[in-house]
Amino acid sequence: MNIPAPYLLMLGESKDPLAIKTARGIHYWRPEKCMGQLRLNDEVPSLDLPDIDVQTATKEGAKTLVLGMANAGGVLAPQFVPYIVEALNTGMNVASGLHQRLDAIPAIAEAAKASGASLFDLRHAHGTLPVGTGKKRSGKRLLTVGTDCSVGKMFTTLALEKQMKSRGLSAAFCATGQTGILIEGSGIAVDAVVSDFIAGATETLSPACNTNQWQLVEGQGSLLNPAFSGVTLGLLHGAQPDALVLCHEANREYIRHMSDMPIPDVADIMELAVRLAKLTNPNPRFVGMAINTSALSEEDAKRYLADLSSQYDLPATDPVRFGVDNIVEHLIHVFEE
């Protein structure tokens, strides 16, 4: 998928800040792509973008209406359909990360056909994906792996891309989830790919490239998550990572939504990731640890990170609080010098 920018971000009608996390992620990482926001009432949290309607956005050059809200079940609320149809009628494309397909709604499908605009269902990739080959390809790759879901893999990967580029390195973010795709403008939502093709999809996302280029593959799931380990393994084999970054949330005791399943030990995840990654890369190495320390005070967070760094002889940081320069510095030391 290649999604044209600039975007009009549709924020919906919920008062819950978490409901617009997709739009918030796009605005945080790619503000230059965001023309304005469409809120259906004044109580919807604002991204401090101009409030504009579909007609105004079209006149000002918006290319895609992005459904920047998330909801339980991933089903499009009926009251949003008229706004989508209006956007399509003006020639604007529409992108959605919801589970429900846009073209499954007759009014939307008819409007898209009439206008010639594109519908981007991020969780429903079109075309045929190959199976993985495991063949070594040129270039260098980094993959973020986690102790669980929602521990900061996307944020960490994007933070690494930004910092590496600031240091003059050639780095490209490879999006594997719906929010990442909207941020980057392209990618494959691998959690919606049939399991036999996840490794092949990952190879497609990170093809052979120049030997000095880094492809930074956004991680998903966790190798020791009983629900989502399959997508992680497919990414691990398809990415053929030279470098790995461990993502973890301090003080999380249980797998998300599984109160009877303790979070795996950091060392177990790291050992398992390296062992399994060797199937397609003979020498994968961890180059850092990215920790969500939001549950800790700043002083406790610094102490926690220092202990991890000492224990594993790797740079450890909270990308939100302290950035990722120490991980990039170590990466350069290991691979670039």
UniProtKB/TrEMBL annotation:
InterPro entries: DgcN-like, DgcN-like_C, DgcN-like_N, P-loop_NTPase. Pfam families: DUF1611 (PF07755), DUF1611_N (PF17396). Signal peptide: none annotated. Residues 131-328 form the D-glutamate N-acetyltransferase-like C-terminal domain. Residues 49-124 form the D-glutamate N-acetyltransferase-like N-terminal domain. It comes from the Bacteria. PANTHER family: DUF1611 DOMAIN-CONTAINING PROTEIN, GLL3100 PROTEIN. This is DUF1611 domain-containing protein. It comes from Enterovibrio gelatinilyticus.
